[in-house]
UniProtKB/TrEMBL annotation, chain A:
PANTHER family for this protein: DIPEPTIDE TRANSPORT SYSTEM PERMEASE PROTEIN DPPB-RELATED
Predominant location category: membrane
Gene Ontology CC terms, in alphabetical order: plasma membrane
GO biological process, any: transmembrane transport
Family stated for the protein in its record: Belongs to the binding-protein-dependent transport system permease family.
Pfam families cross-referenced by the UniProt entry: BPD_transp_1 (PF00528), BPD_transp_1_N (PF19300)
Organism (species): Mangrovactinospora gilvigrisea
Protein name per UniProt: ABC transporter permease
InterPro entries hit by this protein: BPD_transp_1_N, MetI-like, MetI-like_sf
Recorded superkingdom: Bacteria
Length: 325, 387
């Protein structure tokens, strides 16, 4: 078990290094020179050279990458400012290191991701389970149609409608806003309720469909039939056998979705003007703030890799076949 | 009187009492393409301590019949007719709760593929103990001990340790032993084995069949053995039912059916089976054509489109009139008993080797004597092939 986890962690590290190298490479493949952007209209060759030196972009790319990687662990010093570890680069637009910006925005994104996930897991998986258990019945048809509808929804369409009805029409809610959980838990909850619901909607559709089809697939499995043939009760067969088999796939999908949500729910944040990582990435892209984009990309990639490793560790708990290999 | 015979509708008239009695069973599935007549008027009996082999091609309704006996069909799409009586209890109208009390307890099922019929997520001990706890109300500890005892019974070495292992830690043959232990944990009176050896190595097959028979001797259970392999049936079963297109086309004891088969379909099955005892130069003769669609089965005898012997029946009876399967020994075929014996002896047996020729000659003589004796052509009384 320990060996499995160590092996998995090492694998994750290799993937992260690869991702960072590729991201860094792409960063410099962009046909925009960050030095040109800050150089202004009357740019001379010598001025450009000075800016390049300040940005650290006058070195060969492999050296730059090396400095970048070392900076993550040891911190860096730019002529324009200090960047303590973990240094994910220095945003020249914001005149501040990228890491504090990310951590500053993270609580909004985490709140959005956790709340939204709770909603879509409970509603989506629950609806899928009901649909599978009552396959072919009215409730199954309603759930399937509903999930199809929700699956084809768009947040930028649903969000404004929810705002128009719930906030401006019926005045049931205030305009969604982020209040730190530590300051006012109730305010945090109420302020994010509409974004959670809207964000969850598209996932609910996907999770309902996935859960339903996974369970129905499991019902056809011989060991599930065998459990029935042993005389076990319908709920027992459903939860202990069929559900158990469907669980690992649902966890896999959830791990992927959750980690990508942590990287920033761009459209949701933008729709509800929440200042999370997603909104930050849009702003950074808008301003061609390459160090910030690089930092967010690497951070998001790291999250996905870490969550994947965590999912694999979960498998080891769920599935004895993985545990022993 | 063959042990599995019983005049339809009058169970009192039988010699031995049937533990499982299936009468005129109809199973129909409604699908998008129409109604599939998966089982069409099937009747058979099984006694305690005896083994009934059910043989037929894929899609002949063997497995459906047995899932129906266990009540594991989908009630939304399946219509059931006829009756299934297990030890005096009618099963076709039984509630899911009643069936749950019976499954794994009075009747147990062994599935085809031991690689998939055990859940990978739980230890074998737990999977064996589950039905025991449910049906006997035993404590966890008692059920665990019972699981160890069952593993020992089915020949798993070091059962006290292996009971904690997961299915993937067992080989295929060992897994099928575990499945058998799981099926037999409550001493069921009826065991339905659906191709229990098909997925196993040939060397392991015999071991598993031996184990089944050994368990049968110990518990006195009735076994329904579904297979497409006549070799398996020959060594294991007492009685034999040949199914085609959802109907029983021939029945008798294994001895009777294999020595003097009466239905052209059975002849075809025998002809397409390789044998180690016959001359290697004898070619296999496959049955021409494919099994019929059960959405729209052929009129009359369902086998007539593939049958080589329809011209021996006067008129177009094969096409228009459905032949009945007589109670007891017999075949659902319009050929007269002496025609059957003659055609088998002359046309079919030579391709099956010398032994078959001799047996066929005996059967032909017996059939001729019978025909002369009572002069009732078409009578297929069960005595006629008594040996």
């Amino acid at each position: 078990m320990l060996r499995f986890l160590i092996r998995r962690a090492l694998g994750a590290l290799v993937v992260l290094i690869l991702i960072s190298a590729i991201t860094y490479g792409l960063f410099w493949a962009v046909p925009r020179d960050p030095a040109m952007l800050s150089c202004g209209r009357d740019c001379t060759a010598s001025a450009l050279k000075i800016i390049h030196h300040n940005l650290g972009t006058d070195e060969p790319i492999y050296l730059q990458y090396w400095h970048y990687m070392v900076g993550i662990f040891a911190g860096r010093h730019f002529p324009v400012g200090n960047c303590p570890a973990p240094c994910l680069g220095y945003s020249f637009d914001e005149s501040t290191p990228v890491w504090p910006i990310i951590t500053g925005r993270l609580p909004v994104t985490i709140s959005l991701a956790i709340g939204g996930s709770v909603v879509f897991l409970i509603v989506g998986v629950g609806l899928g389970m009901i649909a599978a258990a009552r396959r072919g019945k009215l409730i199954d048809k309603v759930a399937t149609t509903l999930s199809m509808f929700m699956y084809s929804m768009q947040i930028y369409f649903l969000g404004p409608i929810a705002l128009a009805i719930l906030v401006y029409g019926l005045h049931l809610f205030n305009n969604p806003a982020y209040v730190p959980f530590t300051e006012n838990p109730w305010g945090w909850f109420v302020g994010l309720l509409i974004p959670w619901a809207v964000l969850a909607t598209i996932f609910v559709g996907a999770y309902t469909r996935m859960t339903r089809s996974l369970l129905i697939e499991q019902f056809q499995e011989e060991h599930v039939k065998m459990a029935r043939a042993k005389g076990m009760s319908t709920p027992f067969v459903f939860f202990r056998y069929a559900w158990r088999g469907a669980l690992s796939m649902i966890i896999t999908q959830f791990g992927m979705d959750f980690s990508s949500l942590l990287g920033g729910a761009i459209i949701t944040e933008y729709t509800f003007s929440l200042q999370g990582l997603g909104a930050f990435s849009v702003e950074a892209t808008d301003k061609s703030d390459l160090p910030s984009i690089m930092g967010i990309m690497l951070f998001g990639a790291a999250l996905i890799v870490i969550f994947n490793a965590a999912i694999d560790a979960c498998y080891a708990v769920i599935d004895p076949r993985v545990r022993l290999n | 009187m063959s042990t599995m015979t019983m005049p339809a509708g009058s169970p009192a008239a039988t010699g031995g009492e049937a533990f499982l009695s299936v009468r005129d069973l109809y199973v129909r599935f409604s699908t998008e393409d129409g109604i599939v007549k998966a089982v069409d008027g099937l009747s058979f009996d099984v006694q305690r301590g005896r083994t009934l082999g059910i043989v037929g091609e894929s899609g002949s309704g063997k497995s459906v019949t047995n899932l129906t006996i266990l009540g594991m069909h989908n009630p939304a799409t399946t219509t059931i007719g006829g009756e299934i009586v297990l030890d005096g209890q009618e099963l076709t109208g039984a509630s899911e709760r009643q069936l749950q009390q019976l499954r794994g307890n009075k009747m147990a099922m062994i599935f085809q593929d031991p690689m998939t019929s055990l859940s990978p997520y739980y230890t074998v001990g737990r999977q064996i103990a589950e039905p025991f706890r449910k049906h006997t109300g035993a404590t966890k500890r008692a059920a665990h001990e019972r699981a160890v005892e069952m593993l020992a019974k089915v020949g798993i070495p070091q059962p006290a340790q292996r009971v904690h292992d997961y299915p993937h830690q067992f080989s295929g043959g060992m897994r099928q032993r575990v499945v058998i232990a799981m099926a037999l944990v409550c001493n069921p009176d009826l065991i339905i084995a659906d191709e229990p050896t098909t997925a196993l190595d040939v060397t392991v097959q015999a071991q598993i069949l031996d184990l089944l028979l050994e368990m049968q001797r110990e518990f006195g259970s009735a076994i329904v053995l579904i297979t497409h392999d006549l070799g398996v049936v020959a060594n294991t079963a007492d009685d034999l039912l040949v199914m085609y297109a959802g109907r029983a086309v021939e029945r008798g004891t294994v001895e009777e059916v294999l020595r003097a088969p009466q239905h052209p379909y059975t002849w075809g099955l025998l002809g397409s089976m390789p044998s180690l005892t016959t001359d290697v130069s004898l070619p296999l003769t496959p049955i021409p054509g494919t099994p019929p669609s059960l959405l729209d089965p052929p009129t009359g005898c369902p086998f007539h489109p593939r049958c080589r012997f329809t011209e021996h029946v006067s008129g177009a009876r094969c096409r228009t009139e459905r032949p009945e399967l007589p109670d007891g020994r017999g075949a659902a075929c319009h050929l007269t008993p002496s025609q059957k014996a003659e055609l088998y002896a002359e046309d079919v047996a030579p391709a099956l080797g010398e032994e078959a020729v001799e047996a066929a000659a005996d059967a032909e003589r017996a059939a001729d004597a019978e025909a002369v004796e009572d002069q009732v052509p078409g009578s297929t009384d069960s005595e006629e092939n008594e040996q």
